[in-house]
Design goal:
- The structure is a single chain.
- The chain contains 19 helices and 2 strands.
- A two-stranded antiparallel sheet has the order 1-2.
- Helix 8 packs across helix 9 and helix 9 packs across helix 10.
Length: 340
């Protein structure tokens, strides 16, 4: 049924566009505001974004209108799963929202899932049925995957890079660079993954007219005074000041808290808690568990730090990291997430 509704809405939006008589130039970004808007981006992103504007602004502005039904469907699913709706632009740079898009390596559908990753995310992928091509079902799968990546990396630019190349490569780049800042570690990533992140930033900028929470790294969010994922705290949330070498992943595992919700309530926890103390925000039930097992959580956190691990192993499913094939190790696919 949703397919028929989608087709009707597409036709309706096309008629509205013709009636309005708006050209791509009049729907574009006002050049008088563009300089101010660019200040919402990282300085190192601006040259790429300006070049991308020259090449792709008109095409993307047309898509913004014509693909409105698709964007609405994707937004509804992302918001249902507690994710920023601007992540819909990842499907734009992956496939131009085309359900029949296929990369040379076998990634398919609007979200360009590889077969094994699609199955891990709950999609049916067989010779007779391929749900990667179903916008509705594949968007739910993409939301699930993006949520897990964010729980591991806590930085949207790194999530976009990991969606392209796999989180193992991103973790390796973090280790080599000694930093979690995309703009510092980017040259330890495949060139395609670096460009993928910048394409996402540029597409977001063209569509939204400015940067936002998904186009900045965790460190930039403080500089730009950007809000966390959601400014609305769930009822029953408690605040408690703590200090010590606590690790977020250990708290998440022991309390049974949803990883993304923890990051929303406690941005940059691992970076700040051991130096300045931290106002820990947890749902009432989770706070009770934290206080009951506080000593054990601290001891395990210290052990995690001493062992040099991230502490995310019990939170992020290891099976999502599948070994790359020989061909993939030599060259990443032309489109899609290279996670298998």
């Amino acid at each position: 049924m949703h397919k028929y509704i989608l087709l009707f809405t597409i036709c309706l939006s096309g008629l509205l566009e013709e009636a309005s008589g708006l050209s791509a130039s009049t729907r574009g970004i006002d050049t008088t505001d563009q300089h101010t808007s660019l200040l919402t981006l990282h300085p190192r992103a601006i040259p790429f974004v300006k070049d991308y504007l020259d090449l792709h602004e008109q095409r993307l502005q047309r898509m913004k209108t014509k693909a409105l039904p698709y964007f609405t469907l994707i937004e509804n699913i992302l918001e249902e799963k507690g994710l920023p709706k601007e992540l819909k632009y990842l499907a734009v740079i992956e496939s131009d929202l085309k359900s029949n898009a296929v990369s040379w390596a076998g990634a398919a559908g609007p979200w360009q899932f590889m077969p094994a990753t699609g199955r891990l995310m709950g999609l049916t992928v067989t010779s007779r049925k391929d749900e990667r091509r179903d916008l509705f079902k594949s968007t739910y799968a993409a939301a699930r995957y993006l949520k897990q990546l964010y729980a591991e990396l806590n930085d949207w630019l790194l999530v976009i890079a990991a969606y392209n190349s796999g989180s193992l490569r991103v973790q390796s780049a973090i280790k080599k660079a000694g930093s979690r800042d995309f703009w510092i570690l980017q040259h330890h990533l495949p060139a395609e993954s670096r460009t993928h992140v910048k394409k996402f930033i540029a597409t977001h900028f063209i569509m939204e007219g400015q940067g936002g929470i998904t186009t900045t790294g965790a460190n930039d969010q403080d500089r730009l005074a950007l809000a966390p994922l959601s400014s609305e705290l769930p009822s029953g949330t408690l605040l408690q000041t703590i200090s010590g070498k606590y690790v977020a992943a250990v708290i998440i595992r022991v309390t049974g808290m949803d990883p993304l919700l923890f990051r929303q309530l406690n941005p940059q926890f691992d970076r700040k808690v051991s130096t300045d103390g931290y106002g820990l925000r947890l749902p009432e039930k989770c706070m009770a568990i934290f206080n009951e097992k506080r000593t054990d959580i601290l001891e395990e956190s210290v052990q995690t730090l001493l062992l040099g691990t991230s502490g995310t192993g019990d939170t992020f499913p290891k099976e999502l990291e599948l070994p790359a094939t020989t061909n993939q190790a030599k060259k990443s696919p032309g489109a899609g997430n290279r996670k298998t």
